[in-house]
Amino acid sequence: MIISILVASIVGFCISVYAFITERKIKADPNYKPACDITDRISCSRPLQSEYSNLFFFSNTTAGLLFYAALAILAAFNFTTLILVATSINLLVTLFLAYLLFFKIKSLCPICISLYIVNITMFVFAILAMSGISL
How many CB atoms lie within 10 A of CB 14? Predict the structure, then answer.
């Protein structure tokens, strides 16, 4: 199960890299239209430009990069208890960010939703790892 958490954290890191690059391109060029902007409602640039894009003293994309890198390190060293604590806290953050995305920003962000899925998956894997269940 730890391998699954490691793989999920790498996937989350890669998605966060895309989000980070997209955020930087949007800030550098207001006319830039990322591939994840499908319609006015299905858009990643809306949340990346919103007032909620910097909730953790720096960009949420930077926080994601740091979180997934830290989780990969924890998984590499098999720190299951810390992984469970981190993914539990992250699940609460994910629920809060999903609330902001759907009800305040009113957007369906493909990047954000992908990360929410990764986060929920990692939480489930952490619970399974703590209980000794393997897939």
Answer: 12
Long-range contacts (CB closer than 8 Å, 24 or more residues apart) made by 47-50:
47/100, 47/101, 47/105, 47/107, 47/109, 47/112, 48/19, 48/22, 48/23, 48/109, 50/104, 50/105
Which residue segment(s) compose the domain that 35 sits in? 2-130
How many Å apart are CA 54 and CA 99, to the nearest integer?
15
Is 20 a domain residue? Answer: yes
Torsion sign, CA atoms 77, 126, 8, 110:
negative
Instruction: Answer whether residue 33 is part of any domain.
Output: yes
| pLDDT, mean over the chain | 94
Report yes or no on 135 lying in a domain. Answer: no
Categorize the per-residue pLDDT at 135 as very low, low, confident or very high, splitting at 50, 70 and 90: low
Whether 65 is in a domain gets the answer yes
Identity of the amino acid at 33: K
Residue where the block lists tokens 């305040």: 104
* Total count of domains within the chain: 1
Q: Where are the beta strands (DSSP E) in the chain?
A: none
Q: What is the mean pLDDT of residues 115-128?
A: 97
